[in-house]
Amino acid sequence: MIIDRRTAAAGTCNETAPAGRREQGLSRRSFLAASAASLGALGLAGCGTTEYMSLAEAQKVYGPVPTEKFPIPAADVSKVNPKYFRATVAYETKEPVGTIIVDPSNYYVYRVEEDGKATRYGANVGRDGFRWHGDAYVGRKGEWAVWTPPKEMIKRQPEAAKWAGGMPGGLENPLGARTLYLYQNGQYTLYTIYASSDPESIGSGVTSGCVGLLSQDMIELYDKTPVKTKVVVLPA
Question: What residue spans carry the region label Disordered (predicted)?
Answer without folding.
Answer: 1-21
